[in-house]
């Protein structure tokens, strides 16, 4: 997999013996954006959710009037006021009804919800002019179309640019980038259809204009398979199920609620994530004492089979279309059966108290918690390896997005807060799959630990020690933005 660009410098990195092409971003490239976007008079950003609002503002600021950026919203949307407050106006044509903006735009970035994309895609496709570049920041719509044996319109480009962080961080780190060189959220890009012959440069211009320090290549299909699987595994549902099972286990072993929370959720989103972010998975293990390494190894080996079984099942459900169909069907039920929140249960109420009195230096680095969490995480890595995903995508969707984006956000706000406030697609996945991780860890992994070392096959941990992911993360760490994720 490779690409050609006539505007930006393509570089190559070596990841675990494989060569991948990337583009390095930076504000010094902003003057190249009009050339990369030749033939684009207007970019229409459709939607004002977290990604839509962030991307519209970043694009407007980076292009600085050389290409018009217009926001398109549904008639009567409450987001009109928020868009006006950010400087978009009906009077100058930078704000309008979504289908009018789509019809007037040469590049349309479709950043409305997955449910809205599936509901409105036929009308959206009919409104696109031939030669338009359709941009997506998530491949859900491709999966939906494939399941229905449908395709994108043949006369338009289809590209993806997928920031590896939440919308608030995409905007906040872009603003920090004015003062801190390299601040921003890395992104992946994909070209699914190139009708105009300019799709690569337009996609890369989009990513650079968002402030991405580095842009990695993938395919739209690979992106949605890894993204949907990842949020149903270690990125959201998996971490949710892991920490709930650990919290309950620690309480059953006689710990006070507050200490059980520190050893489970706080340990994962605090020191475990911070060490992995800076030093990698092997660096986390090496940070432990000799005795703690033994605990880590046994916990890792006990949790890994659970994670591998479930992540393969999730991947199969996504790839077959079952998971996408379940999201669409659930969306139709939400009017009658709205999703409840999890933040009123005992664990998450305890978490509010713990965060309110938090002393970072007192959060324990639990080798047992670290082993369980890393065992499930590495199961996702190995699932993606088995399915042939690019190494950079495996690292981003399994490790980097967790420890550099989502876990820090959960550390600040709470895991329950993220589960209750992420996208509808991710919330549905968290509700559906977290309990599976919880139950199987409780039913299989922890009983094995209780039976002693003789009951645990350490082969998964032996494979961990020399795993290719360590070299991949070492290279990716060199491309880590110099500032941590922004959390309001």
Structural description of this entry:
- The chain is an alpha/beta fold and 488 residues long.
- The chain has 2 domains: 10-212, Rossmann fold, CATH 3.40.50.720; 228-477, Orthogonal Bundle (N-(1-d-carboxylethyl)-l-norvaline Dehydrogenase, domain 2).
- The chain is built from 20 helices and 10 strands.
- The longest helix has 31 residues, at 257-287.
- It is globular, with a radius of gyration of 22 Å.
- The relative contact order is 0.13.
- The mean pLDDT is 95.
Going across the major beta sheet, what is the strand order?
A: 1-2-10-9-8-7-6-3-4-5
Shape: globular
Number of strands: 10
Give the H and E element order. EEHEHEHEHEHEHEHEHEHHHHHHHHHHHH
Q: Work out the radius of gyration.
A: 22 Å
- Report the portion of residues in β strands: 5-15%
Structural class based on helices, strands and sheet pairing: alpha/beta
C-alpha termini separation: 38 Å
- Give the number of helices: 20
- Mean pLDDT across all amino acids: 95
**CATH domain class of the largest domain:** Mainly Alpha
CATH superfamily of the largest domain: N-(1-d-carboxylethyl)-l-norvaline Dehydrogenase, domain 2
Main sheet overview? 10 strands, mixed
Q: What is the name of the CATH topology of the largest domain?
A: N-(1-d-carboxylethyl)-l-norvaline Dehydrogenase, domain 2
Stretches where pLDDT falls below 50 for ≥5 residues?
none
> Roughly what percent helix?
55-70%
How many separate domains? 2
What CATH architecture of the largest domain do you see?
Orthogonal Bundle
